[in-house]
Structures are given as structure tokens and as C-alpha cells.
Design brief:
Layout lengths: L72 E5 L4 E6 L4 E7 L7 E3 L6 E3 L5 E4 L4 E5 L4 H8 L4 H30 L4 H20 L20 H30 L6 H10 L2 H9 L9 H19 L5 H26 L5 H30 L7 H16 L4
Helix pairs in contact: 1-2, 1-8, 2-3, 2-6, 2-8, 4-5, 4-8, 4-9, 4-10, 5-8, 6-8, 7-8, 7-10, 8-9
Length: 403
């Protein structure tokens, strides 16, 4: 670990280099700070004739914004992606703050109320609480790129596992507990699930306003990047297969005389997503940034949709379970690609384009599937878009250049 920094009392500007190479400072017990209110520099009594003490302005008192701040030193550690908090009276590390990857400097904002860490995520630190208050790049792929640049696949799989568990738990609890609590009303069940979301929104509303970034970041998605469309459409095809199955499978099985299989088929569709994300977490090198998983997912999706059609819904848990596994595999692998393919400062824009495209497919696809069923009066027509999504996955996966 290499410690680099420049000592300031109250708040700190840290930079590259070694402590032994830093310029001389006022004694640690001095009541002044380099971030104090400006004052006209005056020659120091100890300065040589014709020279000016450039630190003279630091002895005129604290600036109001930094009064009461702990007199600590903040040193970025590139090797551990953290900022060490050092007590200058004991020269001991008294705490660490996890930040983005490769932190190089710690710099105060113009109003001296926030410390910015010059890492890949531009982490902000509140000098009063000495906690990271926000990260300017907030999309999950951006955080993965910043926090786990060497383990993108494993970190994305862990995040994906959390989302999948949440989806599965929500569906399971709704069917078994929540519906009963609200007297069998699905409208009331949805309203009940909105309570924790509302609580989070209220909590965020009363949080202190996040400091603005030092520079206005670019935000418009990278629509002209062909890779964005390949990944976005691939994720959209998998999302269409998953959400289309969830939307139309119960009615399809009821229409084909297999209504009793609906609970098991839906459970299989959702629960069997977890093995895929666990598998990616265990052996990410075998899956991440490779084309074959996308092609394989497309093949299995086509087989699953056509199997449901050919058997009129018989053995539906097997078909839906296979499609659920493949949709989750594409989901995790597609999320892992923006941190690997985009420049560090553009991961959020790359991800925004991918998510916009994929969510559009996930919305429009099931809608068209229902329209086909209504127009033809043939239940199997609701599964045709799912099969076509599998074909699209095969074509898109074979064209991806991920290395």
C-alpha cells in the first residue's frame, strides 16, 4: 500500500507522491488551515530576504465552512480502493472509507463542504461524518466497474442474485401470504407492496441534497454505438421471453387444460433462474464476455416455447424452467458487459442505452403476444413471440464481438 498525501488541518487536499516528499507545513498543533479564509500573504519572520512565505495565509483562522471539522488526514490508497483516515497527533490510521477503484486525490469542493475522491466513480465524502455520501455514477454497472474491476462477472452475478431472489420472494409471498392478508384482492396486494417503496422514497426525500459533481457529466445514451444495440436487443429478447412467459403462461395452460400446472410452472420459471447466476459467480471466466452462452440461451428458448406449443402445455414446468434459466443467464451476462466494453467514464451512458432498449422489448413483446392471441383466438400465438425472441438471441449472440 502506498500512502500519498498532503497534510491539511480540518480538511485535506491529497495528491500523489510520498509523505516524505511533501512541502513543509505549519506545526500540527497550529490553529490555522490552508483552507482558511483568504488573507494577504506576508513575509515570514524566518523567510530569507526577498522571499515570501507562501503559507502565511494559512495562519489567519479557519474558513467558516470548515470550523468544527475533525483535524484528520485523508490519504487515497490505490491498491485497496479506499481512503485512510489518519490522526495527525498519533500518526495512526483510525478508519477507512471504501471508494471507487484507483483513487488518486482527495479534493474539497468549491464551498469546502464536501471532499471528492478522484477515482473512477468520483466518490463524495462528508468531512463531518467521514462517510461516503454518494457516488456520481449511480447505475449498477458503473459501480461494478469502479468497485470490482477485476471481478466484474462475479460482482454482477451477486447483484443479479439479489434481484432474482427479490423477484422470487415477492411472487411467492404474494401468492401465499399477502393475498390472504388483504382478503384476496390483488389490487390491495399491489398497494401493500408499494408501502416499502414509498417508505424508501420518503427517506430519500429527507436526505441532505447530494453535492453536485465538479464537472457536468455526459448523460445522453450512446445510441450510435452498435454494441449497445446488440447487447440491448439480446437482453431485450431474454426479457421478452421471461416476462412474456409470466404474463401468458397461466392463461395458456388454462386454455389447454393444464390449469393445475400453473403454480408449479411459474415457480419453475422463476426459481430456476438462480442456478444461472450462481454458476456465473462460481466460474465467471467460462461465461462472461463470451458469445456461446447467448447462442445457447436462444436455442433453449426456442425449444422451450415450441415444446409448450407442441405438447399443449404438458410438462410445462420443464419447459418454463429451462427458459427461466436461460433468461437469467443472459440477464447477468448482459449486465456484466458495460463495465467491460465501455470507457470508465461512459459506463453509465452505455448502460442507459442497453436498459432503455431491453425494457422497451420487455414491454412491447408481451403486449404484441397478447394482441396475436386476441386477433387469432389461438392460444399458442401468445408463445410465438417468445420463440422469435430465442431466434433473435441466436442471431445477436453469434454477431457479438466481446473480446
Amino acid at each position: 500500500m502506498r500512502w500519498v498525501g498532503v497534510l491539511l488541518v480540518g480538511v485535506v487536499l491529497s495528491g500523489c507522491g510520498s509523505l516524505s516528499g511533501a512541502a513543509p507545513f505549519a506545526p500540527l498543533h497550529a490553529t490555522a488551515s490552508p483552507l482558511a479564509s483568504p488573507a494577504t500573504p506576508s513575509p515570514s519572520p524566518s523567510a530569507s530576504p526577498g522571499e515570501t512565505n507562501v503559507y502565511a495565509a494559512t495562519r489567519s483562522g479557519f474558513a467558516p465552512a470548515v470550523q468544527g471539522l475533525p483535524p484528520h488526514v485523508y490519504v487515497p490508497n490505490e491498491g485497496s480502493n479506499s481512503v485512510s483516515i489518519i490522526d495527525p497527533t498519533t500518526y495512526k490510521v483510525i478508519g477507512r472509507i471504501a471508494v471507487g477503484s484507483a483513487p488518486q486525490h482527495v479534493t474539497p469542493s468549491w464551498d469546502l463542504r464536501t471532499l471528492y475522491v478522484n477515482d473512477t466513480a468520483l466518490t463524495a465524502i462528508d468531512p463531518r461524518s467521514e462517510k461516503a455520501t454518494n457516488v456520481v455514477q449511480v447505475a449498477m454497472p458503473s459501480l461494478v466497474a469502479a468497485w470490482e474491476p477485476r471481478s466484474v462477472g462475479r460482482a454482477t452475478a451477486a447483484y443479479g442474485n439479489g434481484m432474482l431472489v427479490g423477484e422470487i420472494a415477492g411472487a411467492a409471498l404474494t401468492a401465499t401470504i399477502v393475498i390472504t392478508l388483504v382478503g384476496g384482492s390483488w389490487q390491495a396486494a399491489l398497494a401493500l407492496w408499494s408501502v416499502p417503496v414509498l417508505a424508501v422514497a420518503v427517506a430519500l426525500f429527507f436526505q441532505p441534497e447530494a453535492p453536485a459533481p465538479l464537472e457536468r457529466p455526459l448523460w445522453w445514451p450512446q445510441w450510435r454505438d452498435g454494441r449497445v444495440w446488440l447487447i440491448g436487443l439480446a437482453l431485450g429478447a431474454a426479457s421478452l421471453a421471461y416476462w412474456g412467459s409470466n404474463a401468458h403462461l397461466p392463461d395458456y395452460l388454462n386454455a389447454t387444460g393444464h390449469g393445475d400446472d400453473v403454480p408449479l410452472a411459474l415457480t419453475s420459471l422463476n426459481l430456476l433462474q438462480l442456478p444461472s447466476s450462481f454458476l456465473v459467480a462460481l466460474v465467471p471466466a467460462a461465461f462472461v464476455a463470451r458469445r456461446w452462452p447467448f447462442v445457447a440461451a436462444g436455442i433453449v428458448t426456442v425449444v422451450g416455447a415450441l415444446g409448450l406449443i407442441a405438447t399443449n402445455g404438458a410438462a410445462s414446468p420443464a419447459w418454463t424452467g429451462a427458459m427461466g434459466m436461460m433468461s437469467a443467464l443472459v440477464f447477468v451476462l448482459a449486465l456484466a458487459l458495460p463495465p467491460l466494453m465501455a470507457a470508465p467514464g461512459d459506463v453509465h451512458r452505455f448502460s442507459a442505452a442497453v436498459f432503455t432498449i431491453s425494457y422497451a422489448c420487455a414491454f412491447v413483446g408481451p403486449l404484441l403476444a397478447g394482441a396475436l392471441w386476441d386477433a387469432t383466438r389461438i392460444p399458442a400465438m401468445a408463445l410465438i413471440p417468445i420463440a422469435l425472441a430465442g431466434v433473435a438471441l441466436i442471431a445477436l449472440g453469434s454477431r457479438m464481438r466481446l473480446r
